[in-house]
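User: Could you check the structure of this?
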Amino acid sequence: MKTVIDSDIFIDYLRSYPLSKRFFEELEPGKVLFSAVTEAELLSGKDCNDETSMNETLRLLNAYTKIEVTNEIAKKAGELRRVFGIQMQDAFIAATAMLNNAKLATRNVRDFQRIKGLMIQKPYG
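Assistant: Sure, the predicted structure tokens are below.
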């Protein structure tokens, strides 16, 4: 099954959190996706003021498949925000997972658990 990786998991990896590193090592190649919104979130971090850190972030993302925000994803994200009252960026990430028949790997289960039909995986504590 495909997996959409949430921003928090990427952040943990970039901060060398051991459980995140192990999670990435166990992922099935070719079945790992991320939202273009996640890319924007990661690149907006102050760490990316440093060119080395920004390049490390881009190298990590380039190893996986980016899903662009399509009109279909935008409509679904709007619906999810309206119905479940979640943050807009979370709505885009959830819509990306749902419309790609993928589970969402996140530590932020609380914000996503209300969304009916969204498969959630909490990869570590």
